Amino acid sequence: MGSHKKNHYEALSKLVLITQVGISMMTPIFLCLILGYYIDRYFGTHTIIFLIILGVGAGFRTAYNVLRKELEEAKKPDEEDREWVKKAFGNPDESEKR
Known about the structure:
The chain is mostly helical. The chain has three helices and no strands. It has helices spanning 3-43, 48-89, 92-97. The two termini are 40 Å apart.
């Protein structure tokens, strides 16, 4: 793959990740907002604030999980490269200790 295509792929990949994080944060907030609105309207209570706070917490948790999985996926090629180096040249950590 050419360098030019690789840069476009990486930029598109990052844009998709940002979009996914944004949607995963906003969905629970809006769902809790709608649920709170209808509960308040039906029962005459003021639970919407509590549900919005709950939605924000759920949104942050979901976004954290999405980003954590993405970072784990980004580390895999590095770990594979280290394993290849260890097999090919021995353990580089042991040679530094000597």
